[in-house]
Design brief:
- There is one protein chain.
- The chain is of the alpha+beta class.
- The protein is about 25% helix and about 25% strand.
- The strands form three sheets. The protein has a seven-stranded antiparallel β-sheet with strand order 1-11-8-13-6-5-2, with helices on one face.
- A hairpin with a 6-residue loop joins strand 3 and strand 4.
- The protein is globular and about 40 Å long.
- Bound molecules: 2-oxoglutaric acid and fe (ii) ion (FE2).
- The site of 2-oxoglutaric acid has 9 residues, from strand 12 and strand 13.
- It comes from Salinimonas marina.
- This is 2OG-Fe(II) oxygenase.
Length: about 220
């Protein structure tokens, strides 16, 4: 039997996935990938988020960590930022970093850093139509959303609706099923989260470019 370790197999799968993402980002500016996460990674992230407990989740705001405004008319979800202090958190960040390296090599995107948080939408919670970044006003360039909901049926609601531009009122609807990953250019695609009839878990993340000027360090860290 040929020798093949778990990690070799995983990285071959990831390589094919990263290539599909790159092609779609180049052709259409977004990519929707059901079952993008390995079942092991999807389950670890799901378990991790479930174990976090309510206390870890804070009311979400608008803007980056530093410029934070609470705004309940636009969004009602709760979030918890992910760092590398846990095994699962660091595996997640490594995977996101591998994707960053791949996209930089393949598309010359110049992605510099990545930040992400778990998000928890209770039944009825929503995030109204918005852009993740405004042209020239932010260094977030690529948005990524990963869903952590086993057994999600379309009738549970909670879709992401991704619009092609300001005029688009139809959009593309994405069911937030476990393991689905969506990426889109942050300045190009308005989008919204529709209310669901049950708890909806996800990870929202953003790849950023480096816009440091002089001695102002941006992104921080
Ligand atoms: O959870 C989603 O489907 C999208 C979340 C989102 O748009 C955001 O956090 O900016
Ligand atoms: Fe968003």
């Amino acid at each position: 039997m040929p020798h093949s370790s778990m990690s070799d197999a995983a990285s071959t799968n990831d390589h094919a996935l990263f290539e599909r993402i790159a092609v779609q980002l180049q052709q259409q500016g977004y990519s929707i990938q059901p079952n993008a996460l390995s079942p092991v990674m999807a389950d670890a992230l799901y378990q991790y988020q479930c174990a976090l407990g309510q206390d870890y989740f804070a009311e979400a705001g608008i803007g980056r960590k530093q410029k934070f405004h609470k705004n309940e008319s636009i969004r009602t979800d709760k979030v918890c930022w992910i760092d590398g202090s846990s095994e699962t958190g660091s595996q997640w960040l490594n995977w996101c970093n591998d994707l960053k390296t791949y996209l930089n090599r393949r598309l010359f995107m110049g992605l510099f850093s990545f930040e992400s948080h778990f998000a928890y939408y209770r039944p009825g919670d929503f995030y109204k139509r918005h852009y993740d970044a405004f042209k020239g006003a932010s260094n977030r360039v690529l948005s990524m959303v990963t869903y952590l909901n086993p057994d999600w049926d379309p009738e549970h609601g909670g879709e992401l609706v991704l619009y092609q531009n300001d005029e688009d009122t139809t959009g593309i609807r994405v069911t937030p099923a476990l393991g689905t990953v969506v990426l889109f250019l942050s300045e190009e695609f308005p989008h919204e989260v529709r209310p669901a009839c049950k708890n909806r878990f996800s990870i929202a993340g953003w790849y950023r470019v480096n816009t440091s000027i002089g001695n102002k360090i941006d992104p921080p860290k």
